[in-house]
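=== Structure Prediction Worksheet ===
Name of assembly: unnamed complex
Input type: mixed (protein and possibly other molecules)
Chain count: two
Listed entries:
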Amino acid sequence: MTYTIVNHVLDYFELEQGGLWSLIGAIAVWAAPITGFVAIVGLVSIWLERKISAHIQCRLGPMEVGPHGLLQTLADGIKLLGKEDLVPKNADRALFALAPMMVFAATFVSFACIPFSEKAIIADLDIGIFFIAAVGSLEAIGVVMAGWSSNNKWSLFGAVRAATQVVSYEIPLSLALLAGVLCAGSMSLVDISQAQGGWIWSWFIFRNPFMWIMFLIYFIASLAECQRAPFDLPEAESELVSGFHTEYSGMRFAIFFLAEYGKMYVVSAVGVVLFFGGWLSGIPAIDGIGGITGNLIGAGVMITKSFLLVCVQMWIRWTLPRIRLDQVMDLCLKYLLPISLVCLMLIAVWQGLMPTFDEFGIAMIAAMALGFMQMRRIYRKAIEASKTRLSLPTMKV
Amino acid sequence: MLFQYAHALIGFLFGMVFVALQVWVLVRLLSPKVKEPMKDSTYECGEPPVGDAWVRFDMRFYTMALIFLIFEVEAVFLFPWAAVYNKLMAITAGKPGAWFPFIEVFLFVVILAIGLIYVWRKGDMDWVKTTMHGRFDDKHVYHVADDGNPDKKSVA
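=== Predicted Assembly ===
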């Protein structure tokens, strides 16, 4: 059994394991570091989202509260605390109150299995990945609760769309998770990270030629799971007011937002663990440092990698337009599902043929770099072509 | 190991309590409460709401739920296989049934893939589906089925 944060703290104070002190320790760990971390992730992500969207649109974004508007989200949070708590007259009050709890708790509990570093994990479940996939779908139940209980047509449409979308994308998402499990031979996130030890080419994304396809599928599916653009149909502002949380205001609304940004971090962290080596930096000398220093470096690496993926999610949100519901379903069932099934089988064959051929990763990195340069060349050409096409009419004038 | 699961349960309950504390204690202490009947009405773009929102909705959502059930259960069955696959392959390597762990699951996936092809051919994967009364073509133009009734015409 792996030791986790609580066990280490109990050992330090020479207290009995598994008794009352373990229970108190568990509650304390959830109450202080994890709640704090979720709150900070929420605050930083919302600030990042505003800044990234602003810079993509050639604006500055929030600049007034704190340095570069860093405390703007905190100010907004305090403002929302002071807002009146409204429940519509026709709503189902019990479900209406339960929905934000359900959505938040489902995201919150996913943090249990996400390792920050080798020892810094709340509960190293042996079915970690499975657990995260399972509680990830619990959030959809919360969203349906919110939409149905509001007794509002916009909310109902948003909720039904959210349920369909989350439920459909759960399939390619699970198959992509399976790819990581297949390569590591374990469902625990700690074991999966440790299986990618060594140089950077030991990371699972370079393991075989199909892993990066699986990563793309995972990333697309996780965007849909978080209901982020281009899959933000459940809260499409231009057609559904704000979807399932139309009737929510004040703190309950803020809870939905906190859960959404928490979920973004969770899916990014799982993606990092499965495909990008988790807390491992890809340099054996750094990963070899044990003790508190090593764990702190690991946590830093893990959080940095996850936030990089969160930034990519935001970048995509402010680049791509929303797609239609039939396109969402087509993409999932007609493209992602067959591709991921075929890829999974091919990965199994590869694992059977050469299970420990880590050096293949060097070839993979080279191939990916070449492909990237080629794509960049084609892209540049297309831009040049469009420039000449655009400048023709002006030359006539 | 069981205590690790208790951790997760504690986390779930704690998340719920955290929200409840904020919504029912903190907000109740800090926020104003002004009674006004119009505030409590359902939002429908500023108009008085028409009827109830608890209505029946499209059948297609249920079809999606059914498709989900089939393939998600498939994924659930594949998880334990994936976790032990490497070990199984190491055990059977060089023996007559070397590829048995793969072939077994491959057949399982193929059988489900046949189901996938069936659903696809049947048209249940198309969001804009062929119906009894007509069909949509590739450009999303609706054609009413020609059943000899002169009142029905093709509508765009």
